[in-house]
Amino acid sequence: MRKLSMDDLNRDSVEEFKNKKKIPLVLVLDNVRSLNNVGSVFRTADSFMVEKVYLCGITGTPPHRDIEKTALGATESVEWEHAPDTLELVKQLKGQGFVIGSVEQAENSLKLNKFIPEPEKHYAFVLGNEVFGVEQEVINHSDFVLEIPQFGTKHSLNISVATGVVVWDFLSKITS
Q1: What CATH number has the domain bearing residue 52?
Q2: Is residue 1 part of a domain?
Q3: pLDDT class for 176, splitting at 50, 70, 90?
Q4: Which of 172, 35, 53, 39 lies closest to 113, judged by CA?
């Protein structure tokens, strides 16, 4: 086996990417503090063709060198918008027909392995602050809470890792 070079990968240009059909998913970052995490979410969104990333509250926005360090240019390819208030954005997205899922550990949560997305619907996944998670009011307005099953001694995953897990799971389920 030979490792593939950048030329072998034959990736789309930013313009080609922007014109491609995306998966029916947007990501909502609820007061994420780490700019490196924000950049990683952009990179994941680019990799898996996410429609848009919403950066809410105190979440940092491009351009910023710490975001770019992990995004590696994905802030140019992925559509994004800043929203001052996560709850207001969630209400707006619901009004537009999005199904809202908060990624959190909560009572009556839906384990990720049991989640079956409906391909004709558009989803918004809310991912929370590194310390406090998704705001309770946002959870209260969500259609469901998605929980990633974990089996070790730690009680949570880094937001960038959680994003990769839930987006890949979503993509693999709607394309299978």
Answers
A1: 3.40.1280.10
A2: no
A3: confident
A4: 172
